[in-house]
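Quick one before lunch.
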Amino acid sequence: MTIRHFLSLLDLSGDELRSLIKHAIDVKKKLRSGITHTPLNGKVLAMIFEKSSTRTRVSFESGMSQLGGHAMFLSPRDIQLGRGEPLDDSARVISSMVDAIMIRTFGHDRLEEFTASSAVPIINGLTDKLHPCQLLADMQTWFELRGDIKGATVTWVGDGNNMCHSYINAAKQFDFHLNIACPVNYLPDQDILASASDRITMTHQLEEAVENSDLVVTDVWASMGQEQEQQTRLAEFSEFQVNQQAMRLAHKDALFMHCLPAHRGEEVTAEVIDGHQSVVWQEAENRLHAQKALLEFLITGLD
Ligand code: CP
Ligand code: NVA
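Model of the phosphoric acid mono(formamide)ester complex:
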């Protein structure tokens, strides 16, 4: 069997992503109905976290248990990787003992280097460049609430960061239009942007972007690893807060999403994130269901 990895949404076809989301909705129903579903009996997932996490860690760990397998949390503080053991040596060794590996790290090149020496599927649990697992949950949430996202207008507000890049990839794979409103000095990666230019409208005006949107999405202004830029960013992003005034410009039934953790009063007001258009709790919970479908797809090879 060829090893499939999930470093980016582009690693699966649009059809595979849609069927994965359908399966995620099914496994969620099974769990809710108390039906046991353990296709990963005896399988092991190693999870390497070089950055903090709540949702990613809890969802992968619970997900593996619910599927009949086991997840192993590896902190760089405790394993030899943190003391300088080469990435490729670590990948060879760890992948000889487990069935899949999830990694959350800084540079995307670290993830790619690790993947090149792995004998088992690698899952991107977030890098500075991409956060594809979050997009599976976001898309599942949309599909549950509104049906297929094809043809919808989604607006990304804020930093041209890992989440923004994954939304650009999602626009391509799921066939929706993406407006991006970000400050001039915080643009997304130009190559990623260029790869989906026919689906993107770039602006530096929040109002212009949000108008007539079906879904408004934002994220923190300073991501993990950018803590020292927090003060500068607070000033540079002040015009990019998703508040009630902005949401009024979107369609009446527009949804609001945020990958969390959120900073109320910065990128989003409490009124919006805790308001009736926000679906952030369903979105967060869907990390569990979407990744269970992903684990099954990658480990058993079945979609
Ligand atoms: N959204 C997300 O990935 O959250 P964590 O950083 O808590 O994993
Ligand atoms: N852009 C954020 C997402 C956190 C889930 C970060 O990288 O910190």
